[in-house]
Amino acid sequence: MAAVTWNRARCLCPSLLQVFRLPVAKLHLGRPTMRASQQDFENAMNQVKLLKKDPGNEVKLRLYALYKQATDGPCNMPKPGVFDFVNKAKWDAWSALGSLPKETARQNYVDLVSSLSSSSETSSQGKHGADEKAQDSKGILVTSEDGITKITFNRPTKKNAITFQMYQDIMLALKNASTDNTVMAVFTGTGDYYSSGNDLTNFTSATGGMEEAANKGAVVLREFVNSFIDFPKPLVAVVNGPAVGISVTLLGLFDAVYASDKATFHTPFSQLGQSPEACSSYTFPKIMGPAKAAEVLLFGKKLTAREAWAQGLVTEVFPESTLETEVWTRLKTYAKLPPNAMRISKELIRKNEKEKLYAVNAEECTTLQARWLSEECINAIMSFVSRKPKL
Ligand code: COA
Q: Contact at 8 Å (CB) between 83 and 210?
């Protein structure tokens, strides 16, 4: 974790104060003996909150460590467990300051914040500026028009990776769509990706430790997948680009899947030390046959749109340039069909499978809960989050 790079770190830490919980109100400063006064120190803490640009994990850890050293002195906390990534990284950073005097730590904190404030002002035009944050601020977009609830994965700068919050928001959107007056629900993605699947930092950024995150993850996942199994109206995916992980496996629960010819379908579970979810261990062998499903789910073979169509996972493939117009024209026509007839027909098609799907979902979630705590999985996730940033 301490090796987490600048670029990766931004997605681990949505906010300095939130992740490292800097206890601003708990300051008990003695009389300043060095250049940095108590007022300077407090001003610096306020400046941190106003930084336009997230400085990354390394810097945040340094700030945390200097703050603790300046207020509490040398690290006096018990060492957190090895899988408690965030607290372990914080402990390491604080301990590394050894017996640095409080006054020096305070001075270093003020100097560091001052250097960050000036660089933040000059670099807000960079690749990851304010526009990007605004664009990603809503993980999903939900609209209702022409009888269609459209649910859009909307984190293009993270390839539409799905956060815990997005899981919750999607469940809510499906719940609303199942009872409102729209006729069908359609999923798609903003930008070049449909979705890169589960946000791999969901676990590393959890503050309560890995085990708690895995337990919570399994509960959320089970509920999330059940909301797709239970959705009573036609469920359609417009796969505008590459799809990874759970955004692929869920497709086995959809009623129609329209894909751009630029879309790909990839489930790198073994590479990540994980196992299939969203009932794909049952639906994929049924859809493609066990031999093809094994290549996809066990070996992580990435399917092109045409291959996914040939395997029966995709309904129809469209040229990227005409996908939007052709598919949405068609969907708007379908949405004018008698809603009750479609609903009843879907019920007939799916009802014999429902109990089986609930059971498969439950078993997959229990399996994954254990997988998330396995060394194979933890190593794979850590190696993803500590990849070198692109220049
Ligand atoms: N979880 C968290 N962050 C993700 C992500 C995911 N599933 N997929 C992409 N991102 C982030 C990257 O970390 C990167 O963030 P940064 O700009 O802060 O560094 C940003 O999205 C863009 O991704 P990047 O890797 O730079 O783009 P790419 O075109 O080179 O590669 C992917 C795109 C999707 C192939 C690659 O990001 C990837 O392999 N992601 C993991 C996919 C995955 O394993 N999902 C879970 C399956 S179970």
A: yes
- Closest residue by CA, ligand 1 atom 6: 199
Read off the tokens for 309.
């169509």
Q: How many domains does the chain have?
A: 2
Whether 111 is in a domain gets the answer: yes
Out of 196, 265, 266, mutate this one to test ligand 1's pocket (max ligand atoms within 8 Å of CB): namely 196
Tell me, yes or no, whether 160 lies in a domain. Answer: yes
Per-residue pLDDT of the chain (391 residues; tens, 9 = 90+): 333 333 333 333 333 323 333 333 333 333 444 578 888 999 888 888 777 776 766 778 889 999 999 999 999 988 876 666 677 778 888 998 999 999 999 999 898 888 887 765 544 333 444 444 444 458 999 999 999 999 999 999 999 999 999 999 999 999 999 999 999 999 999 999 999 999 998 877 776 778 888 999 999 999 999 999 999 999 999 999 999 999 999 999 999 999 999 999 999 999 999 999 999 999 999 999 999 999 999 999 999 999 999 999 999 999 999 999 999 999 999 999 999 999 999 999 999 999 999 999 999 999 999 999 999 999 998 888 887 666 5
Q: Is 1 helix (H, G, I), strand (E, B) or coil?
A: coil
Neighbours of 382 (CB within 10 A): 16
User: CA 267, 273, 278, 284 torsion: positive or negative?
Assistant: positive
Q: Do residue 210 and residue 117 come from a single domain?
A: no
